[in-house]
């Protein structure tokens, strides 16, 4: 099989110089498919991410004009302020009688101070960006009160705030991301289960000896890939690499579920070691956890793309409709009330 | 649990779980005990992780496999395997945050619902170095531990206070349960700590892995 230029194969493919050529005179993206393809194969120049991520995440419509986007920003800014005011106006006396609020705030307070603090953007005492993380997450927990706050969300928000660098805009981009990844955090874990199930089907399709090995060793629940899937490999790569990976995933260019092919690609890369050393579930879990920071992103993306093309329709058929990050099949309620307990 | 393949040599492998609210210091207790490391900015735990360390009890090498997971209950459904085969638990709260102590009862209930009755449990009040911020008294915690028949210790992963003792104590107690069972004595008061009842069941209720001397991978 011959392939197009591999994803992220060189900086020459980066979307920068050509950005203006994708827009018409009023700012509409003329060919969103071509744009997504370009990003899929070349990534985005960091300076452009702020604008491009808003499109990729669905905050900006591709056919919106400059003027429409400016209007959207102003409307959304005031909507955000209203939402934020909901929790800001809770008095200490009211908070005393509002356990759920105190619990969520406690969880968020605990998590934001241990999210990417080694990055200059979130570094040091009294860092205003850490407070922004907290405010956005707390506001989100009121915007989507049924889902609330779950550990891992701060990891998902961190690069968005870093890139977008505006409180209200970051909030709405995060909302868009959570429309797709929210089910990862459902109490019944159905979003995670369906993705891990789809992953097992893809491995069965693309590497049946490895599938059989997992089957024989009671590893078919794929819990060892839980962290990968829950927060889109955020803990597995350096920050810059995570941003590159995410924008490729968010193009949904070859598949909405490229992240599952990324999982398969990593597993295949180490399949001989896994089977050769006869890893049992515990050993495999430890091995996978310790891969963090040691995965070659460019190579894995090339493999994932090839696997996705190779799997073709059979691959797509292995992934049930509605599996995150696909948007939910029914357009009714996204979340039932989640009994959110600290414990 | 399947046989654990390891290239080092040990007599017993004990699985111990760390549980307790988010942010009480579970991961730092783990890293302090297994790697002698501590980080004020360690990330929240996503999914499950474990680390191992071997210690000597009597003349035996006991390998501890210590499991760590997210403190938020949301993830329990997918980490139910977390408790499988655990023979010991450190139930951690933060001495500066009373709510984390209030939740200990619920953690204990969940732990007992998922494990065998003879699991060795230690209540651990972590962050004891923050003396000026203490919100849970030693007396209250002791009373709770006595009532619930668990061990109790205050620790500081930051200052490396009692961390070694807490883990060693739990592992030693597990060892006593297992070796008592192996010897089939069944009623040796010397092997039991004061006030601690350990029921030694008849079946595979302490899933310690005993390595025979001829067994090598």
Q: Helix and strand layout, with pairings?
A:
The complex is a heterodimer of chains A (343) and B (217).
Chain A: H1 32-42, H2 46-56, H3 66-88, H4 92-96, H5 99-112, H6 128-143, H7 153-164, H8 167-181, H9 190-206, H10 208-216, H11 226-230, H12 239-250, H13 258-269, H14 271-276, H15 281-289, H16 297-317
Chain B: E1 12-19, H1 26-35, E2 48-57, E3 60-69, E4 88-94, H2 98-102, H3 104-114, E5 120-126, H4 138-147, E6 151-154, H5 163-183, E7 209-210
Parallel strand pairs in B: 1-3, 1-4, 4-5, 5-6
Antiparallel strand pairs in B: 1-7, 2-3
Keywords (chain A): GTPase activation
Domain Rab-GAP TBC (chain A): 43-253
Pfam families (chain A): RabGAP-TBC
Descriptive tags:
heterodimer, A: 343 residues, mainly alpha, B: 217 residues, alpha/beta, seven-stranded mixed β-sheet, disordered C terminus
Summarize the model shown.
Chain A has 343 residues and is mainly alpha-helical. In chain A, 58% of the residues lie in helices and 0% in strands. Chain A contains 16 helices and no strands.
What can you tell me about this protein's structure?
The complex is a heterodimer of chains A (343) and B (217). With 343 residues, chain A is mostly helical. In chain A, 58% of the residues lie in helices and 0% in strands. In chain A, helix 3 crosses helix 8 and helix 5 packs antiparallel against helix 6. Chain B has 217 residues and is an alpha/beta fold. Helices cover 26% and strands 22% of the residues of chain B. In chain B, strands 1, 2, 3, 4, 5, 6 and 7 form a seven-stranded mixed beta sheet that branches. The longest helix of chain B has 21 residues. The chains are: A mainly alpha (343), B alpha/beta (217). Chains A and B meet through helix 5, helix 11 and helix 15 of A and strand 2 and helix 3 of B.
């Amino acid at each position: 099989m011959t392939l197009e230029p591999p994803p992220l194969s060189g900086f020459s493919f980066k979307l920068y110089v050509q950005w203006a050529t994708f827009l018409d005179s009023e700012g509409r993206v003329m060919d969103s498919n071509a744009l997504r393809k370009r990003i899929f194969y070349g990534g985005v120049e960091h300076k452009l991410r702020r604008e491009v991520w808003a499109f990729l995440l669905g905050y900006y419509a591709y056919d919106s004009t400059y003027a429409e986007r400016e209007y959207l920003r102003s409307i959304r800014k005031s909507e955000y302020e209203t939402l934020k005011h909901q929790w800001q106006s809770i008095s200490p006396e009211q908070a005393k009688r509002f356990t759920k609020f105190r619990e969520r705030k406690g969880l968020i307070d605990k998590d934001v101070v241990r999210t990417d603090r080694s990055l200059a953007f979130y570094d040091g005492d009294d860092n205003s960006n850490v407070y922004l993380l907290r405010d956005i997450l707390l506001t989100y927990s009121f915007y989507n009160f049924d889902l609330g706050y779950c550990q891992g969300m701060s990891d998902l928000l961190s690069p968005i705030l870093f890139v977008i660098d505006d409180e209200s805009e970051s909030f709405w981009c995060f909302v868009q991301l959570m429309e797709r990844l929210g089910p990862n955090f459902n109490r019944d874990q159905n979003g995670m289960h369906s993705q891990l199930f789809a992953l097992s089907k893809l491995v069965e399709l693309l590497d049946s000896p490895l599938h059989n090995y997992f089957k024989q060793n009671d590893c078919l629940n794929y819990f060892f890939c839980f962290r990968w899937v829950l927060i889109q490999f955020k803990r597995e790569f350096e920050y810059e690499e995570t941003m590159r990976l995410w924008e490729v995933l968010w193009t949904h260019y070859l598949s909405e579920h490229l992240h599952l092919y990324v999982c398969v690609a990593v597993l295949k890369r180490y399949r001989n070691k896994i089977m050769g050393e006869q890893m049992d579930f515990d050993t495999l879990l430890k091995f996978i956890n310790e891969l963090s920071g040691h995965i070659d992103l460019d190579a894995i993306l090339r493999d994932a793309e090839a696997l996705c093309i190779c799997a073709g329709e059979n691959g797509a058929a292995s992934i049930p409709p509605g599996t995150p990050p696909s948007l939910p099949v029914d357009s009714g309620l996204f979340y039932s009330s989640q009994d959110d307990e600290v414990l | 649990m399947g046989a654990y393949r390891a290239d080092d040599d040990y007599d017993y492998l004990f699985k111990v779980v760390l549980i307790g609210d988010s942010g009480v210091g579970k991961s730092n207790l783990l890293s302090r005990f297994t790697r002698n490391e501590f980080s004020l900015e360690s990330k929240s735990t996503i999914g499950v992780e474990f680390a191992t360390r071997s210690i000597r009890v009597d003349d035996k090498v006991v390998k501890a496999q210590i499991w760590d997971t997210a403190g938020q209950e949301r993830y329990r459904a997918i980490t139910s395997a977390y408790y499988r085969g655990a023979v010991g638990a450190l139930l951690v709260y933060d001495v500066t945050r009373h709510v984390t102590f209030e939740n200990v009862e619920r953690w204990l209930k969940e732990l007992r619902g998922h494990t065998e009755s003879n699991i060795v449990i230690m209540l651990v009040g972590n962050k004891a170095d923050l003396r000026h911020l203490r919100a849970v008294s030693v007396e209250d915690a002791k009373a709770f531990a006595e009532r619930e028949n668990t061990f109790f210790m205050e620790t500081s992963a930051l200052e490396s206070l009692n961390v070694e003792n807490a883990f060693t104590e739990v592992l030693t107690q597990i060892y006593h349960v297992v070796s008592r069972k192996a010897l089939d004595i069944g009623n040796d008061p010397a092997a039991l700590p004061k006030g601690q009842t350990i029921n030694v069941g008849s079946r595979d209720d302490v899933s310690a892995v005993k390595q025979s001397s001829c067994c090598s991978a």
